Amino acid sequence: MPGKLVLLRHGQSQWNLENRFTGWVDVDLTDQGRAEARAAGRLLAEEGIRFDIVFTSMLQRAIKTMWLALEELEQPWVDVVRHWRLNERHYGGLQGLDKAETAAKHGEEQVHIWRRSYDIPPPEMAADDPGHPRNDVRYRHLDARVLPGTESLALTLERVLPYWHDAIAPRLKAGETVLVTAHGNSLRALVKYLDGIADDVITGVNIPTGIPQLYTLDGELNVIESRYLGDADAAEAAAKAVADQAKSKLGNL
Ligand SMILES: O=C(O)[C@@H](CO)OP(=O)(O)O
Q1: Which residues does substrate bind (predicted)?
Q2: Phi, psi dihedral angles at 82 (to 5 degrees)
Q3: Which of the listed CATH numbers 3.40.50.1240, 3.40.50.2300, 3.20.20.20, 3.40.50.170 matches domain 6-245?
């Protein structure tokens, strides 16, 4: 029997709170985000889940969410692998900008295209920008050509999938229970692949912070069932709040 898979988006980050495009910027969790991560750990404990291995990104909001959830599970000793391929989608020149202000400036439709279209990336960040991952010491061992200055969801999926096939899928096929703590869009890419969601339907999928999504898979890793743990209405409301983040405040006046 293949193992179970849990996908967990990090708890609320400082820039989720400030409603800013984040991408690869390494912002910390807020107090609420830390509480969400612990609550996720408690939901997993109540479900009787124990992990064999955890995969996470190179960004502290996902790493700390993993720590806090594992602490609640009394499993701080579990093997952890960090990998850049699980990082958030790179948001290019939008990183750091306020989502509602950007919608007021460029229109909600344009911002929706940048946020949720499948294959249209936001404007690219220049390679010599201090914020470009090529200039970040943590990625110094990587071939600079793989490091993005912007990404659509399609490009994100293209770099997440090799890691899924090489590192994550074999552990599930071996019957292990796997936690992936990552990000709104790197997880949307994975969910698109796992659930076979069409390009024009994934635009409507939003992943709430800090709520574990439990997948039961068959031997070929086809999805038998997936569900958010805890209160389903709360998960739905939280996903809708993510969708609404780029509503122009001017539009609401
Ligand atoms: O800013 C980001 O990097 C992502 C996730 O927080 O935001 P969005 O939901 O707008 O894609």
Answers
A1: 9-16, 22-23, 61, 88-91, 99, 115-116, 184-185
A2: -100, 140
A3: 3.40.50.1240
